[in-house]
UniProtKB/TrEMBL annotation:
Its cofactor is Zn(2+). Residues 443-546 form the Peptidase M1 alanyl aminopeptidase Ig-like fold domain. The lineage of its organism: Bacteria, Pseudomonadati, Pseudomonadota, Gammaproteobacteria, Methylococcales. This is Aminopeptidase N. InterPro entries: Aminopeptidase_N-like_N (IPR045357), Aminopeptidase_N-like_N_sf (IPR042097), PepN_Ig-like_sf (IPR038438), Peptidase_M1 (IPR001930), Peptidase_M1_dom (IPR014782), Peptidase_M1_pepN (IPR012779), Peptidase_M1_pepN_C (IPR024601), Peptidase_M1_pepN_C_sf (IPR037144). Pfam families: DUF3458, DUF3458_C, Peptidase_M1, Peptidase_M1_N. Belongs to the peptidase M1 family. It catalyses: Release of an N-terminal amino acid, Xaa-|-Yaa- from a peptide, amide or arylamide. Xaa is preferably Ala, but may be most amino acids including Pro (slow action). When a terminal hydrophobic residue is followed by a prolyl residue, the two may be released as an intact Xaa-Pro dipeptide. Keywords: Aminopeptidase, Hydrolase, Metal-binding, Metalloprotease, Protease, Zinc. Its EC number is 3.4.11.2. GO terms for molecular function: alanyl aminopeptidase activity; metallopeptidase activity; zinc ion binding. One of its GO terms (biological process) is proteolysis.
């Protein structure tokens, strides 16, 4: 059942051209396909043509214009096989498919009356018979025919060649994509849509038409996405010299969508959550996500579409690289420090646990049962870190030279991770063979760091060991090539010029040390005074740092580190150590370090207010969990909440004056970085104050809720009201619902906020949400807002000792799996970490998984559940 990288065979047949004709209808759509097929001279396999196909009703099949007798082909459940076909021929097929019945949201499906497609990874085979693999690249011409009133807009990839009326009152459109592409990038849309348009002039002076298609009531939520798109297009020209290549760039907002968005050539489809935004209904976080996802999908045009994948094992070749480009883009467009912190937070709270658990896999996996299960934190986020390390090791100029060669050499090809590294090597004359291990070995490496200052010799000795724990199927690991960025700070917090033993003179103050062995020793000389080490600056590698030092040194770095990431991280380390020790001792006394760290930030916030807000954040519960051998969900929550309340009380006046200093209601529609920063800082203050649970803070939250004109402020106030036992909780939630009942994306927030509410009775509340008339198992956003949020963001109740949270999730996964296996498999993942919990919880999680395994489940869910039980 498992597919393995080592079994890769080049395709036996190429398809040069595809002509598709769709008779579109929600219940039954007719798909006619004409493929121009040609033998691949490089393949020595037998001359059978094997086409993928699932849930297709074959009506007709013709070879070179003549009907094919049933004896000349074999129809299996998921394949169509034509033995002994000629060197070159035309194959025509006609199939029927049923979009309205397609709840998996893969292939052609119906979303709010609109017909649309999702083909990555293997959805095209649910549309027509085809060699549905990314290394078969073809030119597509697509004819769409449909009822004109129901489907006035007809879109597909590329350029519009023709459109008009048909005799029977229907209309048609013909689209052609001049660029060869793999089938996973195919897309079509038919619906009653309106559009907002704009233009972008490329660096060579071509004018590109930009179109964003939405339902008419969302026309007021388009500006930000269009603006983001123009910024992304300009950025990719400036930063990478990459220009857009078609005359038209279309984006369509879709309300039922399994993932965030899809980079189909010239016709991106977006989860409406990742594209629609205006200040009244979307938060600042939403605005930032729109910028990021619009950028991400746009950057795929070069890293993914023009250069695509040989096979799905190479997924990170496009995803890791594109996430890295997206990160660079967002860092350039707003606050570098904030974006880096958010990325590392995500990596450490979500990817690190994946690497420690039964689903651990390398950035380039070597086997899978269902490829959709490998759109993971490891492939995306760790994959991006791997590209970032290359950039750190080579430096930006040399990295860019490598990228230029990669684009030049592989444009129009379907390639591998090795091809990418080879371009980096050849452009720079370096050997990256050891670096390849980041793609092939799973697990998070540990860096054990010890240092010693010798006052007499005036030397600073730095010893670093690396090792990596075993992961499923990989008991031993070879050392990685790890860039470790270091600086030494003097007692005033100034960077010291660095001179390694053997060097004639100091060379700058920041060094990238490249570790290639299991043990390294570095000796810095001429160090006049005892320094403080700032290491792994900007999180230069996705590793766990193990460095024991007195709290005072972390505290010093929290105030003085010259690297904004490390400064924030020092605070997180310090607070984590304090809180973890309190969980151990089962006691909680406010540590004076915390108040001393927070007070100056409140009294004199840094110029970057959003960054200041992050410095004032306690480590997330899942970050604390990640650092415990046996996760104590109750202890973590109790200790963290106590710290929050005590900090609120100890610094009450500071929180309050900082709140008022940054409360600018008149800025509600301003989404500049500065205004967002002020709102973030203010709402951070509000969340601390709300924990005080007294009339003054109740008033403050309610006042903000009532007067807020933007969703950021309204939701922050609502969160303070919901999560901190406010007397007006019930009526405010009801008010919010009434106000926004016609905005599904806002109602998702209403569901999510309640699913995350940690106060007692959570399970009952979640049951009620699941029974609410607006809950819909067919809408992934709604399902994630309730089940996903409950399992990930309400740990105390999801992990209730009696197993009731696990049971609820398993019950609903069984329902969901019959509708949408891809989403079910994803939502099952919180159960897979069972080994990290105490025996009682572990047993109950195991039972829930066991129950799923016994049921009749999809292969998507089966892969997750069995690996979790075995791993
Ligand atoms: N390529 C898309 C993106 O990252 C993700 C699509 C994944 N879809 C899926 N069914 N697994 O931009
Ligand atoms: Zn992507």
């Amino acid at each position: 059942k498992a597919i393995r990288l080592e079994d890769y065979r080049p395709p036996v047949y190429w398809v040069d051209r595809v002509a598709l004709a769709f008779d579109l209808d929600a219940d039954t759509t007719r798909v006619q396909a004409r493929l121009e097929v040609r033998r691949n001279p490089a393949s020595s396999d037998p001359n059978d043509l094997i086409l993928n196909g699932e849930d297709l009703e074959l009506q007709r099949i013709r070879l070179d214009g003549r009907p094919l007798e049933p004896a000349r082909y074999r129809l299996e459940a998921d394949r169509l096989i034509l033995p002994g076909v000629p060197e070159r021929f035309t194959l025509e097929t006609e199939v029927l498919i049923h979009p309205a019945a397609n709840a998996r949201l893969e292939g052609l499906y119906l979303s709010e009356g609109m017909l649309c497609t999702q083909c990555e990874a293997e959805g095209f085979r649910r549309i027509t018979y085809f060699p549905d693999r990314p290394d078969v690249m073809a030119r597509y011409r697509v004819t769409l025919k449909a009822d004109k009133t129901r489907y006035p807009v007809l879109l597909a990839n590329g350029n519009l060649l023709d459109e008009g009326m048909l005799d029977d009152g229907r209309h048609f459109a013909v689209w052609e994509d001049p660029f060869p592409k793999p089938s996973y990038l195919f897309a079509l849309v038919a619906g009653r849509l309106e559009k907002r348009t704009d233009t972008f002039t490329t660096m060579s002076g071509r004018e590109v038409l930009l179109e964003l298609y939405v339902e008419s009531h969302d026309l007021d939520k388009c500006d930000h996405a269009l603006d983001s798109l123009k910024r992304a297009m300009a950025w990719d020209e400036r930063k990478y010299g990459r220009e857009y290549d078609l005359d038209r760039y279309m984006i369509v907002a879709v309300s039922h969508f399994n993932m965030g968005a899809m980079e189909n050539k010239g016709l991106n489809l977006f989860n409406s959550q990742c594209v629609l935004a205006r200040p009244e209904t979307a938060t600042d976080d939403d605005f930032e996500r729109v910028l990021a996802v619009v950028g991400h999908e746009y950057f795929h045009n070069w890293t993914g579409n023009r250069i695509t994948l040989r096979d799905w094992f190479q997924l990170s070749l496009k995803e890791g690289l594109t996430v890295f480009r997206e990160q660079q883009f967002c860092a350039d467009e707003a606050s570098k420090a904030v974006r880096r912190i958010e990325d590392v937070n995500l990596l450490r709270t979500r990817q690190f646990p994946e690497d420690e658990g039964p689903l651990a896999h390398p950035v380039r996996p070597d086997s899978y049962i269902e490829i959709n299960n490998f759109y993971t934190m490891t492939v995306y986020e760790k994959g991006a870190e791997v590209v970032r390390m290359l950039c750190t090791l080579l430096g930006w100029e040399r990295f860019r030279k490598g990228m230029d060669l990669y684009f030049e050499r592989h444009d129009g090809q379907a390639v591998t991770c090795e091809d990418f590294l080879k371009a980096m090597e050849d452009a720079n004359g370096v050997d990256l063979s050891q670096f390849l291990r980041w793609y092939t070995q799973a697990g998070t490496p540990r860096l054990e760091v010890a240092c010693h200052y010798d006052a007499k010799a005036r030397t600073f000795q730095l010893n670093i060991n690396q090792w990596c724990p075993p992961t499923p199927g990989q008991p031993e690991k070879e050392p990685f090539l790890i860039p470790v960025t270091v600086v030494l700070l003097d007692p005033e917090g100034r960077e010291i010029p660095l001179q390694l033993a053997g060097e004639a003179a100091p060379q700058g103050s920041e060094r990238v040390l490249a570790l290639s062995e299991a043990h390294h020793a570095f000796r810095f000389v001429n160090v006049e005074r005892p320094p403080v080490l700032s290491i792994l600056r900007d999180f230069s590698a996705p590793v766990k740092l193990m460095l024991d030092r007195p709290l005072d040194q972390w505290h010093f770095l929290w105030r003085h580190d010259t690297d904004p990431f490390n400064r924030w991280d020092a605070g997180q380390t310090l607070i984590s150590q304090v809180l973890l020790a309190q969980i151990d001792r089962n006691a909680a006394v406010l540590d004076p370090h915390l108040v001393e760290g927070f007070a100056p930030l409140l009294q004199q916030p840094l110029a970057d207010r959003a960054y200041t807000a992050l410095l004032l954040q306690l480590p997330e519960e899942d970050y604390l969990a990640e650092q415990m051998d046996v996760i104590d969900v109750d202890g973590i929550h109790r200790v963290r909440e106590t710290a929050r309340r005590e900090l609120a009380a100890a610094l009450r006046d500071d929180w309050l004056s900082c709140y008022h200093a940054h409360h600018r209601p008149e800025e509600w529609a301003d989404t500049s970085a500065a205004a967002i920063g002020r709102r973030r800082l203010k709402n951070t203050c509000l969340s601390y104050l709300a924990s005080l649970d007294d009339p003054a803070s109740h008033d403050l939250a309610l006042q903000q809720y009532r007067t807020a004109r933007c969703m950021s402020d309204q939701l922050a106030a609502l969160r303070a009201i919901v999560c901190d036992a406010h007397p007006a909780k019930t009526e405010t939630l009801a008010d919010f619902y009434d106000r926004w009942r016609h905005e599904p994306l806002v109602i998702d927030k209403w569901f999510a906020l309640q699913a995350a509410d940690p106060s007692s009775g959570a399970l009952e509340r979640v049951r009620k949400l699941l029974a609410h008339p607006d809950f819909d198992l067919k809408n992934p956003n709604r399902v994630r807002a309730v089940l996903g949020v409950f399992a990930r963001q309400n740990p105390v109740h999801f992990h209730a000792r009696d197993g009731s949270g696990y049971q609820l999730l398993a019950d609903w996964l069984l329902n969901l799996d019959r509708i949408n296996p891809q989403v079910a498999a994803r939502l099952a993942q919180p159960l897979t970490a069972w080994r990290r919990y105490d025996p009682q919880r572990a047993r109950r999680m195991h039972q829930a998984l066991e129950r799923l395994r016994q049921a009749d489940i999809s292969k998507d869910l089966f892969e997750i559940v069995t690996k979790a039980l075995e791993g």
